[in-house]
Design goal:
By secondary structure, the chain is α/β, with parallel strands linked by helices. It has 3 domains: 79 residues, OB fold (Dihydrolipoamide Acetyltransferase, E2P); 150 residues, Rossmann fold (3-Layer(aba) Sandwich); 63 residues, Ribonucleotide Reductase Protein R1, domain 1 (Orthogonal Bundle). Helices cover 28% and strands 24% of the residues. The protein has 9 helices and 13 strands. The strands form 3 sheets. A 6-stranded mixed sheet has the order 10-9-8-11-13-12, with helices on both faces. The protein has a 5-stranded mixed barrel with strand order 1-2-3-5-4. Strand 2 and strand 3 form a beta hairpin. Helix 3 crosses helix 9. Bound molecules: guanosine-5'-triphosphate, magnesium ion (MG) and zinc ion. Zinc ion binds next to helix 8. The site of guanosine-5'-triphosphate (GTP) has 25 residues, from helix 6.
């Protein structure tokens, strides 16, 4: 809350024509809460209100937005300008993402490869770098780890394995998050909140026990929060989700470009319009036969292609 003193600070600041006593700074919105925005700048969190012009124009500010704000008191500011966004997500509503950390568990629940691939397509389409992380390493053996690595490393994505129980792989994952804004996405119960807690002992997000009967998560996390590991490292936990539509504007011929391991091979298909289904001399199907493309990746490509074609028809 802004007290009387700060209100009058704001007025005096507004009144000063050159605003010489108001410092203009740039920062990142960490969260919005009952009309106030919390803006991080050089390790300090400012409680900011909106300038009237931003209210009038109904500018919508999201966590992750870069803004210019004036300092009008000790730790108190007023947001002046929204700086251009690099990208934005609708769900969770955040802006300027660098990475989507796609989290799956190696067991309990078993990895949902279709959801992982769907999220990689979604991320790349939005120009967000996908990072894949398999948690609950303590529950899996080395054969399972090898199998997953063999699917995703040739696909060209950074792949991490970790366990919040043994602490294995947490330091490596943390290093990959350093200096970036990442959102953790994945099915309920895979350990998103546990990973956040393992990264910073201070946060202590609620985690859920998985019901033994159902082996399903209970959606412990219900809202979006942005956490700061340090001045430049932001991480958002999201409520688990298991269904996600492919972006509506993808065209069928664009889909294969969102599978990085297909990309270098596309020019070797006989037909420039090859959809890599039943066409002769298809470089993708050849790479599949040679074991250079994982069967699950190819199958998911075909499933998404069907979805994209259905979507094209319905618009
Ligand atoms: N064995 C094992 N269990 C884990 C590990 N990480 C998390 N868990 C357990 O998995 C369950 C779910 O973890 P959460 O962190 O709540 O999962 P979440 O992804 O945040 O789930 P939602 O908030 O529902 O989306 C909890 O019982 C955790 O204790 C791990 O590395 N190994
Ligand atoms: Mg959670
Ligand atoms: Zn082809």
């Amino acid at each position: 809350m802004i007290d009387k003193k700060n209100d009058s600070d704001m007025e005096s600041c507004l009144q000063s024509a050159v605003a010489s006593d108001c410092q203009l700074l740039e920062g990142t919105i960490i969260k919005g809460y009952s009309g106030f925005y919390y803006v991080s700048c050089a390790g300090v969190l400012y409680e900011c209100s909106l300038r009237g012009k931003n209210k009038q124009k109904k500018v919508k500010f999201l966590p992750g937005d870069k803004v210019q704000f004036s300092v009008i008191g000790d730790g108190v500011g007023a947001i002046e300008t929204l700086l251009p966004r690099k990208n934005q997500l609708l769900r969770p509503p955040v802006a300027n993402l660098d990475q989507l950390v796609i989290l799956a568990a190696m067991r309990d629940p078993l990895p949902d490869l279709r959801l992982i691939d769907r999220l990689t397509v979604f991320a790349q389409w939005n120009e967000i770098a996908p990072v894949i992380c398999f948690n609950k390493w303590d529950l899996a053996d080395s054969a399972e780890q090898k199998k997953l690595a063999e699917i995703y490393e040739p696909a060209g994505f950074p792949v991490f394995f970790c366990s919040t129980v043994t602490g294995q792989g947490i330091a490596e994952l943390k290093a990959a998050l350093q200096g970036k804004f990442s959102v953790l996405a994945g099915n309920s119960g895979v350990g998103k909140s546990s990973i956040m807690n393992a990264i910073s002992g201070e946060w202590q997000l609620a985690t859920g026990e998985i019901s033994d009967k159902l082996k399903r998560g209970r959606h412990t996390t219900r809202h979006v929060e942005l956490f700061q590991a340090d001045a430049d490292t932001l991480i958002a936990d999201t409520p688990g989700f298991s269904s996600l539509q492919l972006p509506e504007d993808i065209k069928r011929e664009e889909l294969s470009r969102l599978f990085p391991e297909f990309l270098s091979r596309l020019s070797h298909c006989r037909f420039a319009t090859c959809m890599h289904r039943n066409e002769p001399d298809c470089a993708i199907k050849e790479a599949l036969a040679q074991g250079e493309i994982a069967p699950s990746r190819y199958e998911n490509y075909l499933a998404f292609l069907e979805e994209v074609i259905q979507q094209e028809r319905s618009y």
